[in-house]
Amino acid sequence: MLLWIDTAKRASAGYITAVIPYFGYARQDRKDKSRVPISAKLVANLLTAAGADRIMTMDLHADQIQGFFDIPVDHLRSEAIYSQYLEEQDLSNVIFASPDVGGVKRARYYSKHFKRELVICDKYRTKANEVSAMTVIGDVKGAEVILIDDMVDTAGTLCKAADALMDKGAKSVRAICTHPVLSGKAYENIENSQLSQMIVCDTIPLFKQTPKIHVLSTAKLFARAIRNTVEHKSISALFH
């Protein structure tokens, strides 16, 4: 991406918008312990230094990452895609869930939009990418639960959350995750988990096909956002 921006700049491009469906290093957005970098800020600086005039991305790990940029940021929301998909489903017995405390805001949007209940899975980590314990806050007995998250890496959190929800009496557990990073044993974890389905966007291409993973396209949303940018129209209007 940096090379393409620099090439366009050197070719006398008048205005450069960098469309980045998945913003890398988004989880490294704070200094939570000594001697760690804030890589999200570094990448933001590199994109600006390369010559980008505007950034368009989807579902940043934290909204405050937009403040790392000194140029305009169009932050697209996957809710526009998933809400349309879910409206075609039977949600009469559905409860939405957050796989951790940090994701409550995302899950609450769906619970309010569809007027359904919300539960929270509280996780405890001993080290990165490894969940030691999971506690369910709320009643899910007999319900079809949909977990909401912005990305899935090793899928450890989601699989642990699915186990905890099923142990609490959930009828089934599905997951909605925007960015399918799927590193390490992610595919194996998903296939062997109690998740009945995982719905993701195509912001990152899948390296393997599995019946449990269903992919939704972001093409139309990005196309409309790009058009609105070119025509100097509102981006937020796409989400109302």
| N- and C-termini, Cα separation | 31 Å
Query: Per CATH, what is the topology of the largest domain?
Result: Rossmann fold
Number of helices in the DSSP assignment: 7
As residue ranges, the low-confidence spans are none
CATH architecture term of the largest domain? 3-Layer(aba) Sandwich
Summing up helix and strand content along with how strands pair, one would put the structural category as: alpha/beta
**Quaternary organisation:** single chain
> What's the β-strand tally?
10
What is the global morphology? globular
Strand content: 25-35%
- What is the string of SSEs from the N terminus onward? HEHEEHEHEEEHEHEEH
Mean pLDDT across every amino acid position: 92
The number of domains is: 2
Specify Rg, calculated over alpha carbons.
19 Å
Helix content: 25-40%
Summarize the structure.
With 240 residues, this protein is an alpha/beta fold. Helix content is 29%, strand content 26%.
Describe this entry's structure for a reader.
The chain is of the alpha/beta class and 240 residues long. It folds into two domains: 2-77 and 220-239, Rossmann fold, CATH 3.40.50.2020; 79-217, Rossmann fold (3-Layer(aba) Sandwich), CATH 3.40.50.2020. Helices cover 29% and strands 26% of the residues. It contains seven helices and ten strands. The chain has helices at residues 2-10, 39-50, 79-86, 104-113, 156-167, 186-191, 219-230; strands at 17-20, 54-58, 73-76, 94-98, 118-127, 130-137, 144-152, 172-180, 197-201, 213-216. The strands form two sheets. It has a seven-stranded mixed β-sheet, with helices on both faces. It has a three-stranded parallel β-sheet with strand order 1-2-3, covered by helices on one side. Strand 4 (94-98), helix 4 (104-113) and strand 5 (118-127) form a beta-alpha-beta unit. The two termini are 31 Å apart.
